[in-house]
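Hi R.,

Here's the chain you asked about this morning:
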Amino acid sequence: MRRAEKKLKRAQQELSRKHKGSKNRAKARLKVARAHAKVADARREFHHQLSTRLICENQGIAVEDLSVAGLARTKLAKSVHDAGWSSFISMLEYKAQRYGRALARIGRFETSQTCSTCGVKDGLKPLNVREWTCTACGAVHDRDHNAALNVKTAAGLAVTACGAPVRPGAIPAQRKETGSHGFPTGNRAA
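And here is the predicted structure, written out as tokens:
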């Protein structure tokens, strides 16, 4: 995607140098349009592949309802917009519904501001605070790890404290599911 964005940038620079109304400007406009389409297609393809993989591998998924507008005002703005969070979440939603999986959205104020150990809300913290100590229980938290634990707990997906495995073991295929598909199961000589 980054390569496609570089080509888009170059094509837009070339377009800006062309005289308005010229045939070369029309050609450059088409080149810019194709470059835009390639960038959009690359992003959409990545979203489809990742969302399908997540939905097929998991019974339930919990996502944090991020403030994309707030994150876009930071120095991470390009990365935030490139991620396409809302389109990714909408893909997860319809695929979860299609495959019969559970998708939970967790509010943004219930995650990184709350202590995952004792549950006390410690107040707003700026993004540059990556580690903080809970005033109630004294536990030291990494901001992202604490948010992940809170999302997991809020979604009801928490496992036992000993860290039991979440995924079941491999299940062998049933006899009728093995072999080649697409061939009739009756007499093959016929």
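One quick note: The longest helix spans residues 23-57.

Cheers,
M.
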